[in-house]
Write a structure and sequence with these properties.
2 copies of one chain form a homodimer.
Chain A: H1 8-14, H2 22-31, E1 35-38, E2 43-45, E3 53-59, E4 62-67, E5 73-79, E6 84-85, E7 98-101, E8 105-111, H3 112-121, H4 123-149, H5 152-169, E9 173-174, E10 177-179, H6 184-191, H7 195-207, E11 211-214, E12 217-220, H8 223-228
Antiparallel strand pairs in A: 1-8, 2-7, 3-6, 3-8, 4-5, 4-7, 9-10, 10-12, 11-12
Helix pairs in contact in A: 3-4, 6-7
Chain A binds a DNA duplex through residues 151-152, 183-185, 193-197, 199-200, 202-203.
Chain lengths: 254, 254
DNA sequence: CGACATTTTGATGAAGATCAAACTGGGTGG
DNA sequence: CCACCCAGTTTGATCTTCATCAAAATGTCG
């Protein structure tokens, strides 16, 4: 019912922090046994619920969002394969946001006892988990900057760069293209733009030859130019692979 | 050179997660020995620097901010007395944002070895520290919502509610008033608004009898109405005092 | 008193929201 | 196989919010 390949993304991601030993990987796999498959647009975690499990996205796109008083929803983060959410969230009485899927998603749900056990037993893993929560926090701050200080065009360019870099970090890009299974209206939720305006910006980008987005596939034709639009600086993603002194082989491939 | 009263705010804040034992408090005090006094508008931590210490704000207001390519700065978080920043930040190679003071600030700087020692020795403290970083993350997400989905008027009302609640949680409000030592231009940085527009919204709020803001003092005349403007829901601050099962006495006063 | 930061006011312009409607394309059922 | 449906995309027109520019008023501190 679960394949080894499930957690490839997770391992690739964590190895941006520290190289994992075979035992680390085995421990990780043993804990990711219970995998659920969810359809697109389903709810994984509901705001206000008691926090129970650690969720690891194995495949597909999901998002964190907050519901507004007026019923609208604001995305406050994107969850990609390899993202492990809320390692310590059991400390809180209730979830302060919801998590929903954007595409079909395969997710491993780890009881927090198992997570605690894992962190006690494998210090390298523990370190990598903390690293990944710090990165998420950094991304959240970048989103504040994004919706706060950038034009629609810059925002969208920034989001595309972020998604591409994050997917690249877990080996899920093919050349200059990657998945992006969001409707224009969902892009609007992420960027705080109306669907109409998303559409216009998108056409402008296509027209400029920067990207194409069709069939849930994003292709970046001119990455330097795209990066240049918002002044994208990938350091906030902490993917430079030197977070751990013991990190050596940065370019090994699976 | 340091008074017991220094860490009152910190203790009051952490006790929203779990009641601390006298030993916990003593350990905390012993570690906050080295206190620095900084003038307003000084830099505490610079983006890109190696992450070294844990900073605890004892007195005054500070903020996290990111510098933009165009030199403008976007505030991505407010640090109030009792806020302990970046407990685990030593995992990252470099800081992904800067921290600066808004008013004169007294800050305790804890070497991360001491922080680790503290967390090993006092599990209740460790738990409270994690709680506080999760709360900060939650606040960061709320800021995304704030600048993303709310009008200038709602944004400002929301920020005022947040600051008041957070200060109230550490016993730093007097009746319906609290400190707010930000210029209108700094408020603009926090809310992603121009200083001019901040001014106009402020006047409207005053005119509506909601608040007054003078001499760095915020007075909220009609809290229910103010809360109602953005639909402020304080749950994201996790201050309900029930995060820990052992929590009992919620209303004890120092 | 004078220099300087901050607040206030006015006028204008631009980015993006909103409303409305047409167009596209894949999937379903008759 | 076609007609239909529905979600998503595209286009147009109008309106609101807020930024920007400019300048006057106020306050503060040496």
């Amino acid at each position: 019912m679960f394949q080894k390949s499930s957690i490839t993304s997770l391992i690739r991601k964590l190895e941006h922090c520290a190289l994992l030993s075979p035992e680390d990987k085995r421990a990780l796999e043993s804990v990711c046994g219970s995998v659920r498959q969810l359809p697109a647009r389903s709810i994984l975690v509901t705001e206000g619920d008691p926090a129970q499990r650690v969720n690891v996205i194995l495949e597909g796109f999901a998002c964190r969002f907050r519901l507004q008083a007026d019923g609208r929803r604001q995305m406050v983060g994107l969850l990609l394969p390899g993202d492990m959410c809320d390692i310590r969230v059991c400390i809180l009485k209730h979830m302060d946001h919801s998590i929903g899927t954007l595409s079909p998603v395969r997710v491993a749900q780890i009881p927090h006892e198992s997570a605690d056990w894992l962190m006690e037993r494998c210090p390298r893993l523990a370190r990598a988990f903390w690293w990944s929560t710090l990165v998420e926090e950094s991304i959240a701050r970048e989103w504040v900057v994004n919706v706060g200080h950038r034009t629609a065009f810059e925002r969208m360019a920034h989001l595309f760069c972020e998604v591409f870099e994050r997917l690249h970090a877990v080996g899920l890009t093919r050349g200059d293209t990657c998945d992006l299974p969001l409707t224009q209206s969902e892009l609007g939720d992420a960027l705080s733009l109306s669907a109409v305006h998303v559409n216009r910006v998108l056409m402008e980008m296509r027209h400029n030859g920067l990207i194409t987005l069709r069939n849930q596939q994003l292709t970046i034709h001119d990455y330097p130019a795209l990066r240049n639009v918002p002044g994208f600086d990938p350091r906030y993603l902490h993917l430079d692979g030197t977070n751990d002194p013991s990190f050596r082989a940065q370019e090994q491939t699976g």
